[in-house]
Model the fold of this input.
Amino acid sequence: MSLVITGGAGFIGSNLVRHAFTHSTERLIVVDKLTYAGSLLNLEGVIDSSRVRFVHADICDEAAMREVFAAERPRAILNLAAESHVDRSIDSPRPFIDTNIVGTFVLLEAARRYTSALPDAERAAFRLLHVSTDEVYGTLGPEGRFHEETPYAPNSPYAASKAAADHLVRAYFHTFGLPVLATSCSNNYGPYQFPEKLIPLMVLNGLEGRALPIYGDGGNVRDWLHVDDHCAGIMLVLERGRPGEKYNIGGNNERTNLQVVEAICAALEACVPAAGNAALERRGYRDLRTFVSDRPGHDRRYAIDATKIRQELGWSHARSFEQGLHETVAWYIEHRDWCTKIQAGRYDRERLGQASRADP
Done:
């Protein structure tokens, strides 16, 4: 038996590989293009196992994907391959269209061909699980949460590309009977996240005495979910979810961006007191907070209603936000070498996503 995990060298993907490696005995096939955010550094300690095979390939490559299916005969595909940073989708939407839409289509076609030749029992047992995002639903007002029937209303190129992929996955179930599953998650945090995202960006900038940029008034709300809890939810959906269904996975941990930055400053102070950090030049971590112009099309609030996965499958998150955030801040402090290597030649924590609405 084998599981294919596309995007398995990225943030959520590498954590999912580690989760599956620890909680199962199955052979794991990691497929990744190794873009700026995907790196074998994220799989150190796992990638050399005889149970893990790495395939350097783009999910948009039809021949490569057919070869993976033919060589590995997987019982399931977990699709986490995606361009995922909203700011980058504003600066350059094309990679998001290519990977998130075309790549998902290629995987669906490869899976359809593969399952059509399987014996009945193997065809019935096969699953393709597609991992999506709460951003496909657009923005919420001060009340309510996203549920599985919430209408789609994406507001960024990233969100639109994921919404299109979700619709393709649904269509392949209803048109071709392909046994698919889909999940949408709230904002993930935890180890191995590329430092363009809010939490690692604030941690590393704070340690180096650099500005902590906060978009707009800092009042945008996100529902935070530790990546380990997310991975447990994904595997539960894979094993017990009903084909054709979608399951929302959320942390029930709503915080404004300003509250998150404040909590990171407190965690930094607990781990590396400002008085002993020469980079701060006698300032405190909170003194580094800097309000900057807002992101174009910045959704005001996200919140996930996880009732379905909780009631039908028995999932619940194990970490509080306070516990998870403290562990995460400590991880980035303890893994500064990883942070340096993963950014080298790729990213200097500059601001992205400031493209003018009038840019061609």
